[in-house]
Write the C-alpha cells for this entry.
Amino acid sequence: MPPPPRTGSGRRRGLVTELPLSFAISQPHEDIGIIIGSSASINVDGGIVSGRLSDTGARLLLIPPGQDNVTPTQAAGSFKLWINDGMLTKYELQVAGTVMVTVGKNRHETKTTQTITTELKDIGTTKFAVPAEVKGSWNGRRGNQIPL
C-alpha cells in the first residue's frame, strides 16, 4: 500500500513492503520535471493534462535516488496535472513495476504499484518579519535593502 496523499511542499515516495527499504522526500518540482521530460503521450481536456510516462521516467519516479539496494527492472506509469488559472494546483502519479531488491547477499524480485496525489497550495504566500533592530542597522545602506 503506498503512503497516503500529502499536501504541501514535499511527500514521501518509495516502496512499501515488508522488506527493509528506505523512503525519500521528493519535491513537487522534481516530480514535475521528470513528468514533463519523460512524457510519452499527452492529452489535454480542459484544465486537466494527462498522459503516459516513458519507461525511464516511470523508473525514476518508482525508485527514489539513493536507494542503492533497489533496481527497477520494468516500469510503467501515467500522470494527471490539474491546471487552474495557468497554475499547477494538483498532480497525480500512478507508477507500477518490477524491482530487484538486494538485502545482504539475497536478491528478491517484487512487484509494486503506487498512486500518489500531491496538492499545491498557498504558493507565493510565504512571509517573514525582519526585526526592527536588523532593519535599523541597515538604514542608509543599499537603500534599506537587507541582503538575503
Summary: Residues 28-37 form the longest helix (10 residues). The chain has three helices and eight strands. The chain has a mean pLDDT of 78.
